[in-house]
Design goal:
about 425 residues, mainly alpha, 4 domains, about 70% helix
Length: about 425
């Protein structure tokens, strides 16, 4: 804050904004780390003055708050300042330390071990072209590889590189270190091969015969699904670490509708995986009802609730009738609509009265139409009559459902169920 007789005037939104603009100009002109340090010090002073200033409040909701606007501008400048700093030699060292951990913490296949050695040797050659320091790989075991990387780290430390004077050298070192990381990422890990060998031993690939495709795992999965081999898809689901393969297995379980897959998908459903929950509904697995009823109260996740409601409806357990009916009066209209449709799929006649109340009382026509649709799915005379009352409704959606219910009443309808 500069000296003045009227600090309040000096710390006005206009004066603070002007100082921020000057700081931005200084940042754009900065060429060295020292210049950036000066800009950072200026920003620190401005931030202190923003906090100390008695700034006016916004007159209405549509007007920007001066303090918030200035703070946001200050934050953006700090982000720009950090992006202009560096690169630093420590960035390259950090990457190399991570590469060492990858080598020591990963179990490699025989092929992968050779690829790791090649990656470190290539790094050593490239490193010597950047720094005037000799780094060699004296052996192909883990200790020899990590020792070569340690030598490179020591050479970087000894070089005392300056972020301003040696920026190009530092950038080249970071590129070389990143190249080592890429080489290690491409090397074959034992876990990958071990999974395939395990599946091979259990006959997973036998369905392919002499046919080979890439990846063969997907071809085998498709063939097992075609043959109805739920146990083999469950084996693959437990073995693969690939998100893509897991997703395909869940989709296969959903299409096959086989309750035998419940134990395989339950762990994913417990993690609230929507695909797994959908599969449980399609397979009609009653053992999942209790878990899904618990999820029906997840009001903070309407998308999850909609999937859960449909699954409960498809399973058809009357245990779900009351929990679903409770959601007919929840705040979210999409959740209310999904609950109504789930009750229709479930088909319990105890839902007739609450669904009829929704048509009469809900203020959202799409929800009312879902309730009318649900009554048609229940299909008893009482349910159809409750929906048919609204043939002259204000909403075309409700009216159409009522007309369809009236048409069903002209045909033979299911007798009233005994509850």
């Amino acid at each position: 804050m500069s000296d003045g007789d009227d600090d309040t005037t000096e710390l006005s939104p206009e004066s603070l904004d002007e100082r921020l603009n000057e700081a931005q100009e200084a940042l754009e002109a900065a060429e060295t780390e020292a210049d950036l340090d000066d800009v950072e010090a200026t920003l620190d002073e401005i931030e202190a003055d923003i906090e100390a200033a008695d700034l006016p409040e916004a007159d209405d909701e549509d007007e920007d708050d001066p303090a918030e606007e200035l703070t946001s501008q200050l934050s953006d400048l700090r982000d720009d300042l950090e992006s202009q700093r560096g690169p630093y030699a420590d960035d390259a060292i950090e990457t190399l330390e991570e590469a060492k951990s990858t080598i020591t913490d990963t179990r490699w296949t025989e092929q992968g071990e050779g690829e790791v050695v090649a990656a470190v040797e290539a790094f050593a050659d490239d490193f010597g072209g950047v720094l005037d320091a000799s780094v060699s790989v004296d052996g192909d075991d883990e200790s020899a590889l990590t020792a070569a990387i340690d030598d490179a780290i020591s050479a970087i430390d000894a070089a005392g590189l300056d972020a301003d004077d040696d920026a190009e050298t530092i950038a080249d070192l970071i590129e070389v270190a990143d190249g080592l990381t890429d080489g290690l990422d491409d090397a074959q890990e034992w876990d990958d091969l071990e999974t395939r060998e395990k599946l091979q031993a259990q006959g997973f690939y036998d369905v392919l015969g002499h046919y080979k495709d890439y990846p063969p795992e997907l071809s085998a999965l498709k063939e097992h699904e075609k043959r109805g081999n739920i146990d083999m898809i469950a084996l693959a689901f437990e073995s693969f670490q690939s998100g893509f393969m897991e997703e395909y297995c869940i989709e296969a379980f959903t299409r096959m509708n086989d309750p035998a897959a419940y134990d395989a998908v339950e762990p994913q459903a417990k993690r609230r995986n929507k695909g797994a929950i959908k599969a449980i509904g399609k397979m009609g697995a009653e053992e999942g009802v209790e878990m899904l009823i618990d999820y029906s109260d997840t009001d903070s996740d309407p998308a999850l609730q909609k999937v859960v409601f449909k699954a409960l409806g498809e399973i058809g357990s009357e245990e779900a009738t009351q929990p679903l009916a409770n959601k007919l009066v929840t705040e979210n209209e999409n959740v209310r609509s999904a609950a109504a449709r789930a009750l229709g799929i479930l088909g319990d006649t105890r839902a007739i009265e609450p669904l009829a109340d929704v048509i009469a009382d809900d203020d959202v026509d799409s929800v009312r139409a879902s309730a009318a649709w649900a009554l048609r799915q229940i299909g008893t005379k009482t349910a159809l009559e409750a929906a048919a009352e609204y043939a002259d409704d204000r909403s075309y959606l409700v009216q159409r459902e009522a007309e369809l219910a009236a048409e069903f009443l002209g045909d033979d309808v299911e007798p009233e169920a005994t509850v």
